[in-house]
Amino acid sequence: MKLTRPSEVRALLDRLQFKPSKLLGQNFLIDGNILNILLEAADLSPHDRVLEIGPGLGVVTEALLEKTGHVVAIEKDSRLAAHVERTLGQTPGLDLIHRDATDVDLDQLLREQRLNKLVANLPYSVGSRILVDCFQAQTPPERIVVTVQKEVADRLAAGVNTSDYGLLSIWAQLDYTVSLHKVISPACFYPPPQIRSAIVLMVKKARTLDVRDPDLFNRLVKAAFSARRKQIQTTLQKFAPPERLPGIFAATGLTPTQRPESIPVIQWCRLANELG
Fold first, then answer.
1. What is the pLDDT of residues 89-138, one digit of tens each?
2. Residue among 83, 69, 63 nearest 17 (CA)
3. Are residues 256 and 177 in the same domain?
4. What is the DSSP letter of 207?
5. Count of C-beta atoms within a 10 Å radius of residue 52
6. Structure confidence at residue 4 (pLDDT)
């Protein structure tokens, strides 16, 4: 069954006696054109080893298995996991994990399974959390192609001096070139969500400057954006004595009155390194 029409999806869900959960963000992709756009952006080859979060009815999973050598799919819902196991379980290269992805050590999974790409129609409820876990892994995917809420996509791709620029932007753009690849209509999903979605393409890049202390970096940007209207000099008082601040500003090229949304990623790196 090619699940590209609402009637086909409804019929399958009726057979499974399954009602999609709005709370869990279970909105299944049913548009073949959008599926193709997602797969083309992933630039897949038989050598790729792909992580998929939330395979749902297996539409993306099946397409990934046709193009790649190995797919690790993590599904929380027992009925959906059973459906994917029943329909695709005998397909070579599929490793289906029936667990909540937020309880899985994605850092360890990415390393042990040598997964180099993340391709998924991410559940709305955990999309940002999953992405941050991947960004901060020791061996993050070299390419990430996901559907998320449009507002999350805007935050991932946001530039400085915009209202969307914040923690998620910085964590994503630290290691990736991020682009909003395609805005998706609610009609491309079943059930249709009340918000728009988007495909985001993230391609790994070489860091311009290494962060010497990732924990300090994360604490710094969290502190700054928890009070994003405050000047950066106020935040830095929590990290360094007052007599050090003039030297830190001189070394980083920042001014004391700048606010967090005006500071590019490279300068956050410099600032964290100076503080460390």
1. 999 999 999 999 999 999 999 999 999 999 999 999 899 999 999 999 99
2. 83
3. no
4. -
5. 27
6. 66
List, for residues 240-275, the tens digit of each pLDDT value.
Answer: 999 999 999 999 999 999 999 999 999 999 999 999
CA distance 205 to 175: 6
Query: In this structure, what token pair is assigned to residue 33?
Result: 């054109």
Question: Is residue 160 within 8 Å of residue 262, measured between CB atoms?
Answer: yes
144 closest CA partner among 153, 154, 131, 133? 131
CA distance 225 to 228: 4
Boundary residue ending a domain (151, 186, 204): 204
How many domains, in total, are found in the chain? 2
**Residue linked to tokens 């937020």:** 102
Calpha distance 187→30 (Å, rounded): 9
Q: Tabulate helix, strand, coil % of the chain (nearest 5).
A: 45, 20, 40
> Is 100 a member of any domain?
yes
> Structural domain of residue 231, as residue ranges?
214-275
Distances, alpha carbon 183 to alpha carbons 153, 179, 239, in Å: 9, 11, 40
d(CA 76, CA 185) in angstroms, rounded, equals 25
Q: What is the DSSP letter of 162?
A: S
Which one-letter amino acid corresponds to residue 171?
A: W
Does 220 share its domain with 197?
A: no
Distance CA 232, CA 208 (A): 22
Burial of 8 (0-12, 13-18, 19+ CB in 10 A): middle
